[in-house]
Amino acid sequence: MGAREAVPLLGGYIPVAISFGLIAAQAGFNVWEAGAVSVLVYAGASQFLFVAMVASGAPLWLVVVMSLLINARHLVYGPNIAQWLPRSRWWPWLMHGLTDQIFALSHTRLPLLPESERMGWFTGAMVVAWFSWIGGTILGVVAGAELTHRWPLLGEVMPFALPALFLVLLAPRFNSRIWAIALGTTILSALLLKLSGLPNAAIPIAAACGALLYLAVDAKTRKGKASHG
């Protein structure tokens, strides 16, 4: 079930993975090296940064530190879905497959599944997503230049694949008042910061604003229910 439900994610994963493979090839990585990065690192933004920093001759320690900082969001992801996961010795390995999109999908689907099905669902979803990313990377290294040369529009469209995928995953959340308020605030804050010339601060500050507003509205709602109970 998880594998089937993860298939729509491929529309976002494969184009961006092809972009990564193409950029890695341009930076001097061969197919095995670029493929190894996608197998072992498997973190889109960190991989692009990794390739750029290695190509520029940055020290390894700085590459590692920057990659860890970018992936610090997983400190939030993990606890948020841990409540829905059954105990298993395999989770430390399976968490390698926890990406932004798998988190969003898991956060929606796991609470609806019986506990006995959650392990299989997550395994299927993460394996499909991971393998598509690896395959897209290899395709990008081998044929990315040819693809974008033959179809120039493809090179323009690929960077928008993941943002479009996020919009699809977020859209169902707008049917809830609390989520609509939090997401709307996050989007508006990010847009205002971007237009104000603060693009690097837009994502973390907007995310913090949305999260704090969600917690505030949730606390007020709980308090109201308690007082009427």
From TrEMBL:
Pfam families per record: AzlC
Gene source species: Luteolibacter soli
Keyword set, alphabetical order: Cell membrane, Membrane, Transmembrane, Transmembrane helix, Transport
Bilayer topology annotation: Multi-pass membrane protein
PANTHER family, per database record: INNER MEMBRANE PROTEIN YGAZ (PTHR34979)
InterPro entries in the record: Brnchd-chn_aa_trnsp_permease (IPR011606)
Family, per entry: Belongs to the AzlC family.
Compartments (UniProt record): Cell membrane
Sequence intervals crossing the membrane: 12-32, 39-70, 120-145, 151-171, 178-195, 201-217
UniProt name for this protein: AzlC family ABC transporter permease
